Amino acid sequence: MKMRVLILWVGFLLAASAILQAQEATAGLSSPSTIVGQPVELVVTVRDTRNAQVPQTVDVTGLRVELFGRATRFEMNNFKVTSTLTFTYSVEPLSAGDFTIPPIEVRVDNKTVRTAPARLTVMAGAPPVVSNPSPANVPFPSAPNVPSSAGQVTPYFGDLLLSKKKAYVGEVVPSELRYYFHSRISGEVGDRPNFGGEGFTAQKLSHVPKREQIVNGENYIVFGFQTGITPVKSGALEIPASSLEARLQVPGSPPPGFADIFQQFGGALPPGMFTNSRDVRIETKPVTLEVIPVPKEGKPENFSGAIGKFNMEASANPKKAAPGEPVTIKVLISGQGNFDAMGAPELSEDEGWRSYPPTDKFEPSDPIHFSGTKTFEFILIAKQERTQTPGLKFTYLDPATGKYETLTQAPFVVEAKAGEVAPTPIPVADSSPLATPKPELSPLMPVSHDGGDSSWTPLFRQPVFLWVNLFVALFWVLALIYSLIKKIARSKFMQKRAEAIRIREAIAELAICEDARFYDQASSCLVCIVGGDAENIGIISGLTDTEKEVIRGLLERASESKYSSHAGVKPTPDERERVNQVLSRLASQYAK
Question: pLDDT tens, 100-122?
């Protein structure tokens, strides 16, 4: 038996080694276009090998390309083993333009394979606002805080990264929760970690695309969640730990002696062959943020609470306004900062104009609302003939310098006639009864597939699912009962029981049959009892000589009654009683 197992494993290893012969390498970008300063990923995949070498950096003018992740994956299909190596590069654009990343040379064993070139388009300025914006382009520390484990590889850990250690009250601090899992571990993580605390507000957590990162020479899979933390009071603010639930498949130990088969041939167990399922909670460590109040020195009166780095653009329409016709000034504030707390710009030199509180709308360019554009619209009506609109002032605090900055917009040249808007005539009410308006049906919204807070009834709770499964279960129960009945009916016990019933019925009929048919009926009863032994009296066990003579006489008279042209032979009462006694005793003997 051991020899057969050994032969099977040798064949397995030979087949595996035969598969891992031809190698190929491919390269692909996570996005074909980006903007200056916003990195993308270049993923190099090498198939059918367990060991390969790639350069740490790639020289491309205008781009910074650096290796930061590596992963190995083994798959087994129909006893065939395939392996895939994945190398991940960070590509950071330094200038705008169209770039071609040259083929990357991959050293595999004693030969070199090359990837195809990759093309990247880099644009200047902020990216367009989309329905699913990309993660905030904010620099975070690259080296995580790995918990010490006495020289051993840490299988998983969490880390909370802040974009800065010191912030003003009301300033948005982009933050990222990262959860690291060693590449040898597989499993599933929860939807979102629990995050919150006192002394700050936080934006809704946003998923960051899963990526790979090398930490202390080990490859980790990183799950990230970005948010914006806004402190509401000064002092030392402690951001508490955040935990994420996960169910992991961690490497386990093989059965005793199992690994020896591989070691005898100079190999090792394929990774992931033996795993154990484990529910874990990964926690980050608390982080302290120093919060200071906004400076009082040099604080303008029109400061409305904006903290960040902003630009202002404005326009006025129409250029010519009739009496009572409004002029709209549209102001766009773009950049990075606390848009939620931002107030409207201030109108200056607004004599001769009637103004109304502006409307505002914010369009974020990232999920945590740190970057984007906020639009304000002022409605103005000239009380006097005017040749220019009011000017604009917008003040914000630049956290990088700690100083207040004021953006100004000069008045726009317009021709606005003085006057009031003509009143709209009030229509005379119709005396006829008003028809009840039909409510407008709002269009159905498409079902969200982005893992949001949608709710639905699980399939296993729907009535159709329950009824179908009930009928299927009932069918299988009936089929099982029918199968058991057939099996019992074919068993020796049931067959013997059926024979006993037939014998009892034959003896009962013999006791009441007519004398002319007695010997025929008795012969049939004898065959029913002993079967084929009826013609050979000598092999019928348990008979005395007298009883054998009775059986012989029975058979002779039955033959005579069957083949004689005369009427059936009739037994005497004594003969009839003797035959009944012998057959009854045979029946009881064969029934045992």
Answer: 999 999 988 788 888 989 989 88
Pairing of strands 235-239, 287-292: antiparallel
Contact partners, residue 51, CB within 8 Å, separation at least 6: 85, 108, 109
Residues forming beta bridges with residue 97, ordered by sequence position: 122
Report which of 424, 342, 337, 412 is spatially closest to residue 380, judged by C-alpha positions. 412
Q: Which residues contact 519 (CB under 8 A, 6 or more apart)?
A: 554, 557, 558, 560, 561, 568, 569, 571
Question: Coil, helix or strand for 252?
Answer: coil
Q: What digits encode the pLDDT tens for the residues 341-363?
A: 899 999 988 888 988 899 999 99
Instruction: Output DSSP code: residue 255.
Output: P
The answer to whether 254 and 273 have CB atoms below 8 angstroms apart is yes
DSSP assigned state of 216: T
pLDDT > 70 in the chain, percent: 73
Per residue in 203-243, pLDDT (tens digit) is 999 888 877 777 777 878 888 899 999 999 999 999 999 99
- Residues 505 and 519: their CA atoms lie apart, in Å, by 16
> Any residues with CB less than 8 A from the CB of 547 and at least 6 apart, and which?
582, 585
CA distance 87 to 587: 88
Q: Percentages helix, strand, coil for the chain, rounded to the nearest 5? A: 25, 35, 40
Cβ-in-10-Å burial (0-12, 13-18, 19+) of 156 comes to buried
Decide: residue 160, CB within 10 A, 0-12 exposed, 13-18 middle, 19+ buried: buried
Cβ neighbours for 510, distance < 8 A, ≥ 6 positions apart = 518, 521, 522, 525, 580, 583
Contact (CB, 8 A) for 288 and 239: yes
Can you read off the two tokens belonging to residue 402?
């700690």
CA-wise closest residue to 326 among 338, 335, 317: 317
Nearest partner of 408 among 420, 394, 422, 396, judged by Cα: 394
CATH of domain 19-125: 2.60.40.740
* Residue 393: closest CA among 381, 415, 376, 369: 376
> What are the structural domain ranges in the chain?
19-125, 135-293, 310-416, 464-489, 493-590
Pairing of strands 80-93, 40-47: antiparallel
Asked whether the beta carbons of 417 and 404 are under 8 A apart, the reply is no
- The residues with which 246 forms a beta bridge, in sequence order, are 189, 280
- Domains 19-125 and 310-416 fall in the same CATH topology: yes
Kindly report the CATH class assigned to 310-416. Answer: mainly beta
Q: Give me the residues paired with residue 406 across strands.
A: 395
Q: Name the amino acid, one letter, at 476.
A: W
Instruction: Identify the CA nearest to 173 among candidates 307, 312, 25, 342.
Output: 307
Q: How far apart are CA 313 and CA 439, in angstroms?
A: 42
